[in-house]
Amino acid sequence: MFHIEFFAPPSPTFIQGGIAIFEKGTKHFRRVFTVFDLIYVKSGELYITEAEIPYTVRKGQYILLVPGFEHYGHKGGSMRTEYYWLHFAIPTHYELVEEGITNWADIQISKGDHETPPTYKFSIPCFGKIENPNFIETIFLNILNVDHQTPDYQLRQQLHFHEFLLYLQKEACKIPTAAEKVVEGAVNYIQEHYKEEVKMEDIAAALHFHPDYVTRCMQKIVGETPNMYLNKYRMNQAKKLLATTDDKIANIAQEVGIEDSTYFSKLFKRMEGTSPIEYRKMILRR
Asked: Which residues contact 105 (CB under 8 A, 6 or more apart)?
């Protein structure tokens, strides 16, 4: 399997990303990009050929498509498929190599000094399975859901994107940290129980750790507390329901675990910059 090998700094630059849905039988487009195109399948499967090599990208897997190589769908999917995509550029020289980095210590090439920054080597697999899909999908959501109304939103997207690349490299070296394991458990618990009343004590009890330690791990790895992640996850689920159903706001609030519809509307507006009703109207106008 090939790996993309490059050195940083300068670091790769995030350009644009999104989420797409292919209905059953849909083939991926035939394209040649001048930038990298990373596709991560959240559900379903994609059949993609790059440089005449066919790949089947299943749930929890990703493929990193290289600039200048034609890629296309060689077969329609057998089920409805949802996937994330990210476009990015590597501003320095990169190579396709067959052997990647297996020792985490090898990532640092030089330590730098008072005038020279440290140098790192990355070797990202072009195709792979994500061991912690909930965690990586959280990073995707952090990239895509940054408030576009603030002037620094693209800078914050870059920070989340660099976290994403670092995580891919860590997975390639097979070294999840203790904090990442705690975060994986917390994220899994929240996603399984978000429709219920979720208390910090419940999460901590399920993981057998002190609530303060779980909170510190969440802040260190994903940059937010468990409650912040819970609210963000609930709002993302609410946006899907607003866009795909005619359910009343009160019903949607209950569906995502919030009994008080007034509080739900206030929280939604604070986090998304618009009310649930206006968000639904905006989606319908597209």
From this structure: none
Query: Which residues, listed in sequence order, are joined to residue 5 by a DSSP beta bridge?
Result: 95, 123
Helices (H), 23-150: 133-144
Half-sphere exposure of residue 244: CA atoms within 13 angstroms, side-chain side: 6
| Span 130-154, pLDDT tens digits | 988 888 998 999 899 887 778 898 9
Establish how many alpha carbons lie within 13 A of residue 214's alpha carbon, considering only the half-sphere containing its beta carbon. 22
CB of 39 within 8 A of CB of 46? yes
| Residues 48-71, mean pLDDT to the nearest whole number | 96
Domains of the chain with bracketed CATH: 3-135 (2.60.120.10), 177-286 (1.10.10.60)
pLDDT (tens digit, 9 = 90+) per residue, 196-234? 999 999 999 999 999 999 999 888 888 889 999 999 999
What letter would DSSP give residue 90? -
Q: Which class for 23: exposed (0-12), middle (13-18), buried (19 or more C-beta within 10 A)?
A: exposed
CB 207 within 8 A of CB 189: yes
DSSP per-residue string spanning 203-272? HHHHHTS-HHHHHHHHHHHTSS-HHHHHHHHHHHHHHHHHHH----HHHHHHHTT---HHHHHHHHHHHH
pLDDT for position 176:
63
